[in-house]
Every structure is written in structure tokens, then in C-alpha cells.
Design brief:
The structure holds 2 protein chains of 2 kinds. Chain A is mainly alpha-helical. Helices cover 62% and strands 7% of the residues of chain A. Chain A contains 16 helices and 5 strands. In chain A, the strands form 2 sheets. In chain A, strands 2-3-4 form a 3-stranded antiparallel sheet, with helices on both faces. In chain A, strands 1-5 form a two-stranded antiparallel sheet. In chain A, α6 runs antiparallel to α9. Chain A is globular. Chain B is an alpha/beta fold. Chain B is 42% helix and 15% strand. In chain B, α4 links the parallel β2 and β3. The radius of gyration of chain B is 19 Å and the shape is globular. The two termini of chain B are 17 Å apart. Classes of the chains: A mainly alpha, B alpha/beta.
């Protein structure tokens, strides 16, 4: 930027301030504002009313611009568009009011303002994109690990453009990424990526579930209590999910520290071979595999389970009575004592109540 | 509400506690280190008197973050810094978000609770969208009424006063909508807001500097000092110090983030700038005994480097405390 430009910007700020000051007391300007308010009301009320509308229009426009969205005419009477037209009118009027020399100077100033506005907007848009990429990389670490940082940035950028952020918290953003990935032709070489994203999202949510207290002593009531009235209290986030692809092994491939080390190279190769086979077999599978997810302490846990075990877990999640759960276990010929011991020791269930 | 009595503890020095420092900050070695834990004049046991965390990082209903915030609150006096309430938004703060915020305040009992002078959301095409950013508001009467009402609502909910941080901004609202004219200056707005809402100011010196540098102000520090002179001392409840990435030494990614613009981006990605230290010396003379926090949020350094920055702040604070007449200092405590 040249020194001349710097001076122009300084002057533009001052001029803008003066112009606004003049605007307050200029009858012509007051007249111009009348259609926005009530002609009969106090001029101060009018001004306040105009501010209310103008502030809303500004917030609406800035957010829409950050999201690169074309807002529909959603403010009363096309307010946003009218403000834009007024902005242009005022700009033209200001330029016309100057002497020739001043006009050139002012034109430079207005160009600078416009450039600055766009540059400022770019900063906010860029902040949104960068914050979004960072948030998505935290929520979907396995997806990022599988396709690499650069590809993940490209994917995230596209997703951020596609899915506007309607949540307060970045941690709640991204639920539709698995579906979005399915539609990305560039990711066809990763047919499993959508399911991996679904696993990442589920783990993320499980880890944010409300805490529960593990109460092993309550299991004693299974022997003495009314098992038809009792229910198993599930671990935070307990659920089953079906996946066609070997998502648990793909997760392991990316996150297990040993597999990232030199000593773990052979094990990594073996796991990769296994994953490749399972991916190829996925095409021929008739049913997906069940994965159970839960949180025993702070970290989400997951493991593959049989369809029979998944059925039992679904009964627990549906708040079925202990009797019904035991009946389901019997139907599937699962050893009750073995199942119960494992469920308690793994903290799949936290209590009986 | 009397903001002074609730929001201005003795001259405390803190640091922003971010994810990469959790382990070290909470390690037994750190918490038991005699050198680090030498008692300061206020009897606090760490060489940092408090840490600041971003409230939204602990909004999860359960899990590790809930446990972590309790550990942090047990180890250090806490400052809870909200970044998502968008108190200047013309849309009201949703009840559920406010409840999460209030629940966190209640469970952690922080010494300071703060938010920003900004908006962050708007309804576009029938959907309320959240920018995830701190966006500037016009300094006019309507904005004042909006933010005061929202601050009242939050303060009622948390049963204590807020501190509101001044913003770094890359656009002026009237650049987008001409009629969002300012009818007061930023500091006039802040002072009126504090008077009407009973809140205080979190004075971010780095934000003031960045705004003036981006406006190409000839003598930014002199201008800011003049503004500080006009600010009622009793409303300043906390000071933030930070640095920004010098683009001449920035990584390609950082330059990309700056969008090849002439703007300095408030990235908190460097040591506290020399200008910021100079301004801090001046500000502390105006607002002695004000709790001070060093922020470093990107390109985060070693924990020890951050602590060194806190030490610099403490040296300045102690030097100024000695130079200032005792009654003047006592009046702020």
C-alpha cells in the first residue's frame, strides 16, 4: 500500500465520521429517512427505529456474506436492499459534493473503503473456514488421518460451504459430513470414508454424553429384586451401529500409537492387508457388521459384536425389563452369567434400578 | 450490581490455559514445584494467580471435559471467558445456551466471568446461522439497548456481573449498512454499557493496538492512551495482553489466513508485542491492581515460555504498584 493510500484511508475514516454527524442534522437527510419510520412520531424515535432496522440489516448482511449466501428478502419491506441502495446514493452524493480535485481524492477514498470492506469480509470468511476446518479435524480425526491433511482441508472447505453452521458450538457441527462424503466423486477411491466419518461422529457424541455413576452394588438386586420391574442402566452413549466396512480396524490403523512406530511397521502391514481383504469382502456381504459403542470412563470404547449380542444391547437401550433382557439372552443361546460378568466388568451397564 | 466489588480481585496475573498445556499445567510436578509455587504478595501459591479457559470448550454434558474443568478449577483460580453468547446480537441468547453457561459458572465458581462486545449470529433465509466469530456491532443507541438487555439477562442467570471485552474488528458496520451510524465512540459505548448494565470492561490492549494499526493511525499508542485517560477507572475489571503474528516472519498458512491483506490479524500467535507491554505499563498506572491475563492461542509455545510472559507482566505490575501511592492502590483492592 502506498503512502497516498494510507492517507486516503485515514481521511476516509474522518470523512465518514463527519458525514454521519452532518447526516444527523441535515433536513434533507431527515426527509430521506422518513419512509422508514412514522411521519408523525418524534424525530428521535424515528432515528431509533431506523437504527433498530439498520442494525438488524447489518447483522443479517454480515452473517450472510460470511457464509457466502445470497439472503432472500427476509427483512420487512426489503430493508436490506433499500439500505444498500441508500448506501450507494449517499456515496454518489458525497462524491458529487466535492470539487474536482476533491472528487478525485474522494473517489480514491471510496475505492479504498470498498476494497477494505471486501478485505475485511474476507478475513471473517477466512476465519470461519479455518475455525471450521480445525473443528472438523477434531471431530473427524480418523477421516483426516486416512485422506491426509491437505485433502481433509479441501473436503472441509467444500463441506463448510455446503452446510451452514446453525449450532452455537463447533463441537455440534458436522453431523451430515458422512452423507456429504458419499456424494463426493473425488473420494470414490475411499468407499469406506463415509462410514469412518459416521464412526468418528458417533465416538465424538458418546464422549460428550452426560456422566453416569457406576454402581456395581446394585447388581445384587438381580437375585433378590423383582426382575420384571428392574431395568439395566446403560453406560453413557451405549448404542449399536451397523457398518459394511471394517471401520474399527481403520480407526485402529490411524490411532494406535504402536502401529505408527518403527517397531510396529510389520504389525501395520499385517493390519493393512487384513483391512484390504475386509474392504474387498464388503462388496459380497449380505448384512453389515454390528459395532457396540459406549463410554466406561472418559474415552469412548467400541467393539464388534454378534447380531445376537446387538439384539440384547438394543433391548437394554429400549429400557426393557431385566426379565425381557434375560429372555432375549436365552433366545440367542448366550451364556447369561458370562454375558453379565463381561457387561459389568467392561462397564457396558452401570447399574440395575 | 457493583462491578467493582465483585470483579476486581487484587493484582493477579494469569495465562490463557489451552488444550496443549493441560497436562503440564495440571501435572504434580507443576503444582508442587517450590519455585513455581512461591507465594506472592496476595498469598496465592502459583507463579500464575489464575488461568482463563474458554467456556464453550466445557459445554459438553459429560465426559473428560467436565472432569478436566473441575481439575483445573481445583488447581487454579479460574477466569471463565465466553466466546459464543454474542451479546450484541439482535436475536436473543437461547435459553439452553445460557443455561449451559450458567451451569458452568455455578460448578466452577470462577473469580472472573467475561464475554465480548460483539454479535455472532443472524437469521438468514429462515435459519439462525452462527458465524463462530466475534463480529463488531455499531456504537449506537439501539446497539447499546440490545447489549445491555442481553447482559442483564446473563447476569441474572449467573447471579454475578460480567466483564465485556473490547473487540478487534476488520470492518465497520456502516461499511455494510450506512445507517448503522455510530453515535458514540467505542469507549463512550463501553462506559455507557457498564453504567446501564452494571458490568465491567475486560480491556484487551492488543485489540486496541491491532485496530489502530489496521486503521494506519500515525501514533497508535498515543491515541489509545488518550482514550484510556477518558475511561472511568472503576469499570476496568481485567486486562488482556497478547501478541500477533508478524507477517514478515509468518508461515505460508498464516499468511493465507491473513488473506494476503494489509490487515494484521488478531491471532494471538506470538509473544506479547512491545507496543502491548508499553501500553500495559501506561494502563496499569491508570487502572492499578487490575487482574491481567496473557493470551497465546495459535502457534502455542512451551508452557514455560507462556509462564515467562506472565512473569514479565508481574514484574511490570509490581514495579508500578511500588511507584503508585499506597492509598490509590488500596482503593482498587
Amino acid at each position: 500500500m502506498s503512502k497516498k493510500d494510507e492517507v486516503a484511508i485515514d481521511s476516509s475514516d474522518e470523512h465518514e465520521s463527519n458525514r454521519l454527524g452532518d447526516h444527523k442534522g441535515d433536513p434533507a437527510d431527515s426527509h430521506k429517512e422518513q419512509p422508514l419510520g412514522n411521519d408523525q412520531s418524534n424525530p428521535l424515535d424515528n432515528e431509533q427505529g431506523n437504527q433498530v432496522t439498520a442494525n438488524k440489516a447489518y447483522q443479517h448482511q454480515l452473517v450472510a456474506k460470511i457464509f457466502n449466501m445470497q439472503p432472500r428478502v427476509s427483512l420487512e419491506n426489503g430493508t436490506a436492499e433499500r439500505f444498500q441502495a441508500e448506501l450507494e446514493t449517499e456515496t454518489n452524493r458525497d462524491v458529487n459534493d466535492q470539487t474536482d480535485t476533491q472528487t478525485n481524492y474522494q473517489t480514491d477514498t471510496q475505492n479504498n473503503i470498498q476494497t477494505d470492506t471486501q478485505t475485511g469480509l474476507n478475513v471473517y470468511t477466512n476465519n470461519f473456514i479455518e475455525n471450521g476446518i480445525r473443528a472438523l479435524s477434531i471431530t473427524f480425526p480418523t477421516v483426516e488421518g486416512l485422506i491426509g491433511e491437505d485433502s481433509f482441508r479441501v473436503l472441509s472447505r467444500k463441506f463448510l460451504r455446503h452446510e451452514a453452521k446453525a449450532s452455537f458450538d463447533w463441537a455440534e457441527y458436522g453431523i451430515t459430513l458422512p452423507t456429504f462424503i458419499e456424494g463426493q466423486e473425488a473420494l470414490e477411491t475411499y468407499p469406506f470414508l463415509s462410514e469412518v466419518a459416521e464412526l468418528d461422529w458417533t465416538i465424538h457424541c458418546v464422549q460428550r454424553e452426560t456422566d453416569k455413576k457406576f454402581q456395581p452394588a446394585t447388581f445384587a438386586s438381580l437375585e433378590s429384586g423383582d426382575t420384571n420391574a428392574l431395568r439395566f442402566i446403560a453406560a453413557p452413549g451405549l448404542q449399536t451401529r451397523n457398518f459394511w466396512f471394517p471401520v474399527a480396524y481403520l480407526y485402529q490403523l490411524i490411532h494406535e500409537p504402536y502401529l505408527q512406530s518403527e517397531e510396529g511397521m510389520l504389525a501395520r502391514k499385517a493390519l493393512l492387508k487384513k483391512i484390504t481383504e475386509l474392504i474387498n469382502n464388503a462388496i459380497n456381504m449380505t448384512t453389515p457388521r454390528s459395532l457396540v459403542l459406549w463410554r466406561a470412563e472418559y474415552k469412548a470404547q467400541f467393539e464388534y459384536v454378534s447380531d445376537a449380542e446387538a439384539d440384547v444391547i438394543q433391548k437394554i437401550n429400549a429400557h426393557a425389563s431385566v426379565d425381557v433382557v434375560i429372555e432375549t439372552i436365552g433366545t440367542h443361546n448366550i451364556d447369561l452369567v458370562e454375558w453379565l460378568t463381561k457387561a459389568i466388568s467392561n462397564k457396558l451397564i452401570f447399574a440395575v434400578a | 450490581m457493583n462491578s467493582k466489588s465483585h470483579t476486581k480481585p487484587n493484582s493477579l496475573i494469569g495465562v490463557g490455559l489451552r488444550h496443549s498445556h493441560y497436562s503440564e499445567a495440571l501435572s504434580a510436578e507443576t503444582l508442587e514445584n517450590d519455585v513455581l509455587n512461591a507465594q506472592n504478595e496476595s498469598g496465592t501459591k502459583h507463579n500464575i494467580d489464575f488461568v482463563e479457559v474458554h467456556a464453550e470448550n466445557f459445554f459438553a454434558a459429560g465426559g473428560a471435559s467436565r472432569a478436566l474443568i473441575q481439575d483445573i478449577a481445583q488447581a487454579y483460580p479460574l477466569s471463565l471467558h465466553g466466546t459464543s453468547l454474542g451479546l450484541g446480537s439482535t436475536l436473543s441468547v437461547p435459553v439452553d445456551i445460557l443455561q449451559q453457561f450458567a451451569k458452568l459458572v455455578k460448578s466452577t465458581e470462577p473469580i472472573l466471568v467475561s464475554e465480548h462486545l460483539c454479535f455472532n449470529r443472524a437469521e438468514v433465509n429462515g435459519v439462525v446461522l452462527h458465524s463462530g466469530d466475534l463480529l463488531p456491532i455499531p456504537y449506537n443507541t439501539d446497539s447499546l439497548q440490545t447489549i445491555v438487555a442481553n447482559i442483564h439477562q446473563v447476569q441474572e442467570s449467573i447471579q454475578r456481573p460480567l466483564l465485556i471485552e473490547n473487540l478487534s474488528a476488520y470492518i465497520t458496520p456502516s461499511q455494510l449498512v450506512a445507517l448503522t451510524k455510530d453515535d458514540m465512540t467505542e469507549f463512550e459505548f463501553l462506559a455507557s454499557m457498564c453504567e446501564a448494565a452494571g458490568c465491567g470492561i475486560l480491556l484487551d490492549l492488543n485489540n486496541l493496538i491491532i485496530n489502530e494499526l489496521n486503521r494506519k493511525t500515525a501514533n497508535p499508542l498515543e491515541l489509545i492512551k488518550q482514550r484510556l485517560d477518558a475511561l472511568p477507572a472503576h469499570i476496568v475489571g481485567e486486562i488482556h495482553l497478547a501478541g500477533y503474528t508478524d507477517k514478515s516472519s509468518a508461515s505460508p498458512k498464516a499468511i493465507n489466513q491473513a488473506n494476503q491483506s494489509h490487515f494484521i490479524i488478531d491471532d494471538h500467535g506470538a509473544p506479547v508485542s512491545q507496543q502491548c507491554w508499553q501500553l500495559y505499563q501506561y494502563a496499569l498506572q491508570k487502572f492499578p491492581g487490575t487482574p491481567t491475563l496473557v493470551e497465546w492461542d495459535t502457534q502455542i509455545p512451551e508452557w514455560s515460555v507462556l509462564l515467562n510472559e506472565a512473569d514479565k507482566a508481574r514484574s511490570i505490575a509490581e514495579q508500578i504498584a511500588v511507584n503508585i501511592e499506597t492509598p490509590s492502590l488500596a482503593s482498587h483492592r
